Every structure is written in structure tokens, then in C-alpha cells.
Amino acid sequence: MPHYLVMHTSLVEAENEEAAARKALLTIKESKKISFSVKFDEDSVRRVVVSTADIPCDLRPLAGDPEKREEETPADSIDGAPPEASFHAFIDRTKFAIALILFISGLCLGLAYRVA
User: Fold this and answer.
1) Region labeled Disordered — which residues (predicted)?
2) What's the rounded Cα separation, in Å, for the pair 3 and 19?
3) Are 40 and 4 in contact (CB under 8 A)?
4) What does pTM read for this prediction?
């Protein structure tokens, strides 16, 4: 499956970069149609207009206040994952790091012994 570079350009007046990005995002969210430039390679750039009515329901943001949705996520979870899953992922990363350190230490000791 090919990859495409998809870009949306908005000219926004704002106090700073973050405010401009927020304004552009709000404009995109409230739009009925959104235009994109889709680039396949250096020679082909195509202008595409997408209607927000065409977006499947599972890709649309949930209705309601986003702050309330954030409060429903446990505070000790990572990226919305259950706390148990994030803990196990942390343990797996820690085990990998320890194994990698032991391997590199053994490799260095082996090379030092061979040189000496």
C-alpha cells in the first residue's frame, strides 16, 4: 500500500503558534468540508475536499466535554491503558534494559580480557 503526504493549510491570525494551531483545529472540527493537498510523489499533488459527513462514526470524536472524558481515565494509567497493563509494560521495558546492560557489560569484559 503506498504512502501519501496529506497536508491541510490554514491562514490563521493568533497571538502565538499554539493559539494558531488551536484555532486551526477548531476550524477543522467545525467545518462541513475540509480541503487537503495530497502528495504521492514530487510530480503529483492533488487537491481533495472531504465532507465530514463521510467520516465513519468510529473516527469522529465523542460528543461531550473533553475534560470530563479525561477525568474518567485513571490518573495512574499511561495513554488510557489500564494501570495493570501500563505496569506490565514498564516491567517488560525494565527487564529488557537490564538484559541489554548485562550483555554489553559482558561484551566489554570479554573484549578487555582478550586484549589484555
Assistant:
1) 60-83
2) 30
3) yes
4) 0.42
